[in-house]
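[stage:ingest] chain + small molecule (manganese (II) ion)
[stage:ingest] validated
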Amino acid sequence: MRRVRIFDTTLRDGEQTPGVSLLLGEKVEIAHALADLGVDVVEAGFPAAAPAEAEAVAAIARSVRGVAVAALSRTTPADLEAASRALEGAQRPRMHVFSSASEVHIRSIFQRSREEVVEDAVRAVETAAKRFDDVEFSPQDATRSDVDFLVGYYRAVVEAGATVVNIPDTVGYAWPWQMYDLVRRVREALPPEVQVSVHCHDDLGLAVANSLASLLAGADQVECTVNGIGERAGNASLEEIVTAMRVRPDVLPFDSGVRSDRLVAVSRLVAERTGVVVQPNKAVVGANAFRHESGIHQDGLLKDRGTYEIIDPASVGAESRLVIGKHSGRHALRRELQALGFFPDEAGVRAVWQEVKAVAARRGDLSAEALRAIAARILAPAEAPAGVGES
Ligand code: MN
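[stage:predict] done
[stage:export] tokens:
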């Protein structure tokens, strides 16, 4: 198993989710939760963006221990100064300098030559490397850039002192085999002590697949966010990357320092503080990720969990639930009724089942309270012992 690094950018790229704005206290709270979760790097923000942003990065740098704290900076002296100041109190500061690499970015955003853009980046990395041992460089839109130019660009910033080079798929355009080839090419071109990182966006729904393909190609670090939040369609989702590695070590022989059983709790914290709701069918942390309503699936699960669950729910801090709705079967219903303290005979189960189907057809699945009410109404008192609570 190869140890790979998890760079969390929930507080930087994730906070750039449209409509999200976290208060300083909330950012510090999330940063501590991420450190406890066991990520390797917490990207705390982009200090030059606003004074409040610089204060939040400084507060995180001062109070979070045991992980690297990164601050983002463009190549300008003012940005570098703001980021350096914000990182002053950090135990393990990482300066994260970014520019661009694609023709469309260089022509339209920078309106300069490729050579000038690289020179700027080299100067910025040299400045950063004088103050920090740990300097990451990201050329935006790397996956839509000329590969030979990109490799030369990375060599130049490594020469200038970059210790980590990132391959950002800024617009979510890459495809797993392309990422694989690109990471290989970059990895082979650079000294082994330089870490290669990837940063994948989810515009085509491929961010996690692209991140995993990159690890297979030799990437040392993946950048990701809790719940996959971030610009547009979001970033690669931390919980999905970590869980895929744990469930499929046969094809993904990698370890991270993440304590998986905290994934659901951290997901909920981030959803609550950001207000970005997690879709119910989201892998690993969605409300339905371990809920089963179909009668055939419920029957299989009651016989052997392995029939329909590949992830142990407890391993990610979730619990499995059989949902009583119009698709559920009588086996699961009997099990749920027993959990509520009802022990009906076959005719009783059938009677409750008829009523459950009628109610569920109108309202979807039933809560434990709704099921208890139906059971109490339909079953004879002898079948419904008093004082037995929900188990
Ligand atoms: Mn991004």
